[in-house]
Amino acid sequence: MQKLLTATALTALIASSAVAQDITGFNIGILGGENAQDRLTNNECFRAYAEETLGVPVKLFAPADYDGVIQGLLGGTIDMAWLGPSAYAKVYLTDPEAVDVALVKTNLDGTFTYYSIGFARADSGIKSMDDMKGKVMSFNDPNSASGYLIPRVELPQQGYSIEPGEFFADVKFTGGHEQTIVAVANGTVDAGVTWADGQGNWEDGYNSGALRKASDAGLVDMNDLVEIWRSKPIPEGPIVLRRALPEEVKAKMIDLTMGLIEKDKECAYNIAAGETAGFSKIDHSFYETIVEVRRQQDGT
Question: Counting CB atoms within 10 angstroms of each CB, which of 33, 115, 123, 236 has the fewest?
């Protein structure tokens, strides 16, 4: 038995060393949504597993905005990231050879979609988007699908202009999902949008998403908020890997991520922003519609 264990350990060491010869380090980008320290803390377990898997130093990067991760992928300084669909569309439209779509977070019912959720304070008297006329609306980041791109398309189609002073008294960008949730909860703005899988209970912040993370962190009591709008289903954002990485490195990171929920359910919960059935393989074709919507909106 001792010989078997030694041989197994030696095989693992040799495999890690082979990967280490191809790369000297590995960098994981974390999109905005929470404050930087919370993002780093929640992803530390995955960073440690990646370092063990690859046999090289692995670092986490949590830029202030979405574009920091986007530019890192385009510039080759970030190797892996879980992007929102709009952020992925920007990467693809800028350089279609920069990254490979690898995986997608799976909801508990097996779907790969989520929603842009409009919400307000429960004591505000705002029950629907109609009640937002003449009030202050907030969005997250220009590169967020749920926090800007999708509402930017769907709200005007439903008769709600997002131009300041037309339907809303003013429109503001908060910089991220957590910032929007806090701004609404504090009454700094009248309503905002964020992302959620739309499954489970409102009181929990649904099963996964920014509301769930904010509720878990004690930033808000969901009973103090009310849903006032919901988008059509949005394709869940992809986990991408820099295309120039060695194939063995990409394969190891895909295997690690797909097996994470069995390996460490709490870690999977942390990086998936709540309950998940795990991560499944997906490809670029799932995002072609989002890419085209972004192309049209950006005029490219």
Answer: 123
191 within 8 A of 171, measured Cβ to Cβ: no
CA of residue 268 relative to chain centroid, distance: 13
DSSP, collapsed to helix, strand or coil, labels residue 99 as strand
CB 271 within 8 A of CB 82: yes
Could you tell me where the DSSP H helices lie in the chain?
2-22, 36-54, 66-75, 85-94, 150-157, 177-186, 210-216, 247-258, 260-263, 265-271, 288-298
Sign of the alpha-carbon dihedral angle for 268, 274, 278, 279: negative
Closest CA to 270 of 213, 228, 224: 213
- In which region does residue 274 sit, left (phi positive, over 0), alpha (psi from -120 to 50) or beta (all else)? left
* Per-residue confidence (pLDDT) for residue 9, from 0 to 100: 47
Q: What's the pLDDT score for residue 300? A: 66
Cα torsion through 255, 261, 265, 267, rounded to 10: 40
Position 32 scores a pLDDT of: 73
Residues of the chain with pLDDT below 50 are 1-18
How far apart CA 90 and CA 38 sit, in angstroms, is 25
Residue 10's alpha-carbon distances to 7, 52, 216, 234, 248, in angstroms, are: 5, 14, 41, 45, 19
Rounded-to-10 torsion of CA 17, 23, 25, 29: -130
Whole-number pLDDT of residue 129: 98
Q: Answer yes or no: are the C-beta atoms of 73 and 242 closer than 8 Å.
A: yes
Residue linked to tokens 């279609």: 96
Instruction: Please report the DSSP string for 126-188 in residue order.
Output: --SGGGGTTSEEEE--TT-IIIIIHHHHHHHHTT---STTTSSSEEEE-SSHHHHHHHHHHTS
Confidence (pLDDT) at 109: 95
- Supply the pLDDT for residue 14: 46
